[in-house]
Amino acid sequence: MKDGFLKVATATPVIRLADCAYNAGQILGCMGTACRAGAKLLVLPELCVTGYTCGDLFLQSALLEQAQAALETVRAGSQSSDLLIVAGAPLEHKHKLYNCAVFIQNGQYLAAVPKTHLPNYGEFYERRWFSPAPLENGSIPIDGVDVPFGSRLLLCCNELPTLCVSAEICEDLWAADPPSTRHAIAGATVIVNPSCSDEIIGKAQYRRSLGASQSARLCCAYLYAGAGDGESSTDMVFAGHNLIYENGALLDETPLFQNGMAISEIDLSRLVYERRRLTSFPAVQDDGYLRIPFSLCPVQTALTRLVSAHPFIPSSDADRAERCEEILSMQAAGLARRLDHAHAKTAVVGLSGGLDSTLALLVMVRAMKRLGRPASDILAVTMPCFGTTRRTKSNAQRLADAYGVTFREVDITAAVNQHFADIGQDPAVTDVTYENCQARERTQVLMDLANQQGGLVVGTGDLSELALGWATYNGDHMSMYGVNASVPKTLIRHIVAYEASIAPDETLRRTLEDILATPVSPELLPAKNGTISQKTEDLVGPYELHDFFLYYAVRWAFPPSKIYRLACYAFGGAYEPATIKKWLVSFYRRFFSQQFKRSCLPDGPKVGSVTLSPRGDWRMPSDASAALWLEQAQAL
C-alpha cells in the first residue's frame, strides 16, 4: 500500500447452478489464490453464490436459504484475513428479492449493494425475479445481523484514505446514467462491478470500451468480474471475462472462456492527483451516501503491473509509427500556421547533423508541403566551429540535398575568435564562456539571416533539454518558433527512425540512420582525432532516465521516493540503484535551477501530455527552492 499502490483481483469461479455449497467452496478457492498473490480486494461475478441463470428457481425458498448458508461459509472463511471480498448473491428484504453485491471482510458482512438497472429485454428477464435498488439506504438482515443496504454506500479504508470502494452491477454500467458516476462524485476511487454478461460477437470489445471510458471519465479504478463456466448454456454462453482498468488504461484482463483471475496493482495516489488536477472534476458531494469504515494491514505492495521504462513511447511497432506520424503532423500544422501568419518568405534552421535539428528539418519540409510551397523556401545553415566533426557536417549537407532545401555554410570560427579577443577570453580555456560564445554566435547568424531574407528562425531544442536547462540562454535557447519544445529526446529518436523507415530513397535512409547512430552532442568542445569529444549523456546523464523522471515528476507529481522506486522497477537492473539516485538528484537540481530559461521560451506546439511552456501547462517561479525535493531524493 506504500506509494498508493493496492493489489486487486477479479476472478471467475467455476460454479454449479443452484449448488450453493459447491459454489462457496469455489469462492473460497479464489480467495486463497488472491491472498497468496497479495491482493487486498477481490471481486467475483454477479450472483456467483447461486449462479445467474437459475431462472424461476430464484423464487424457491430452498435456493434462497442455501444461498444464505453459502454466504455464511464465505464469511467464516474470511476470518483472520483483511482481504475485502465482493460476491454476488440474491438477498430477500421486506418480501422482495434483490440482486446484490455483498462486501465481506475478516468474518464480517460490511455492506450489500443492490442492482439499480435491471435488464428486461432480449435474453434478460431480471424483473421477473428481482426488484431494483430502493431510493434510500437502509439495512438488511444477513444471518441475523443488520448490514448496510442500498445503492449509495462507500467503503472507506482507515489506513489508506485514498481507497474508497463502491459497487454497481453488470447492466448498471450499460445504463445511460451509471450509478458509478455518482459514486465517484461522492468520493469513490475504486468501482467494482460483479457481472454476468453473456458473450456475443463484438461484446467483449464493447465491454472493454465501457470500462476504459468510465474509468477515464471518473478518474477511478474499475474492476469488472464476469461469470463463466457453470452458467446455463440453454440460450447463452458466458466467457468469464475479467478486467482491471485505471483511469482509462487496461492493467490486466483474462482470456475469454478460461475462467481465470485478473490481478494487478492500482495506483490510488495517481487517481487522486488526476482529480485534484482536473478543475472539471467536482469536489466530493455527499448526496446521501453512507460511509462504511474498514481496515487493511499496511504492507509494501509488490509490483507486477507494467511500468514502461520509456513512458513517452508506445510499446508496439504499429502504435509507435502512428504516434510518430501524428506528432509530425501536429508540429507541421503549428509551424505552417505560424509561417503563414508571419508572411515568412523563408524558414531558417541551424542544421547540425544531430537529432534535434534533423527533426526540425523534417517538420519544416512537411510544413512547406502543407502550405503548397517548395522545400527550397527552407534555408538550412551549417555553422562549423571548434567541435564540428566531418561526420555531422556531411550528414547535414546530405540531409539538405535529399530534401531539396536551400543549404548554406557559415563558418563561425573567425567570428568567435574575434569575440574572444573583444571580451578577453583565453581560447585555451574551454569553459562555459568558451562554449556559450559559439551557441550565441550561431543564433545571431540565424536571426540575422532570417531578417535578411524576410524569414523566421525555427528552434530545434527539445523537451528533455528544456527540463534540464541544457541550452545556452539566448543562444540555442532562443528562436522564433520552437517546433520540438514538447517532444522528449527519447521520442525524437523514434520519430527520426520512423522517417528513415519511410524514406523514399536509400541515400536519405542511410543518412538518417547515421544521424541516429551519432552520439548526442552540442559539439562545442574541440574534436579529438576528428571524432566527437563532448557526449551530452556523459555530462548530464542518460536521457532515458531523465525522460522517465520528467514524466512522473511533471505529469503525475510523484515524489522523488516513488519515482525512484518506479525507475528501479521499470529499468529492471539496467542501471544500479545508486546510478538512478545520482541522476535523480541531478534532475531535480537542474530542473529547479534552470526554470528561468523556461520562463521565457519561444512559442511552440504542444503535442503530448507533458510540456513546459510558461504560457500553458507549467507555471513555476524561477526562484523556487529545490530543497524539499533534493532532501527527499538524497535520503533514498
Structure overview:
There is one protein chain. It is elongated, with a radius of gyration of 30 Å. It has helices spanning 20-36, 61-77, 171-174, 179-185, 203-218, 268-277, 317-342, 355-371, 390-403, 413-423, 432-452, 463-468, 489-501, 506-517, 536-540, 543-555, 560-571, 577-593, 595-598, 627-634; strands spanning 5-11, 41-43, 84-93, 96-105, 108-114, 138-142, 145-149, 153-157, 164-167, 190-195, 221-226, 242-246, 249-253, 261-267, 290-294, 346-350, 378-382, 406-409, 455-459, 481-482. The chain folds into two domains: 2-294, Nitrilase/N-carbamoyl-D-aminoacid amidohydrolase (4-Layer Sandwich), CATH 3.60.110.10; 317-634, Rossmann fold. With 636 residues, it is of the alpha/beta class. The chain starts with a strand and ends with a helix. Helices cover 39% and strands 17% of the residues. The protein has a seven-stranded mixed sheet, covered by helices on one side. A six-stranded mixed sheet has the order 5-4-3-2-1-14. Helix 1 packs parallel to helix 2 (61-77). It has 20 helices and 20 strands. Strand 8 (153-157) and strand 9 (164-167) form a beta hairpin.
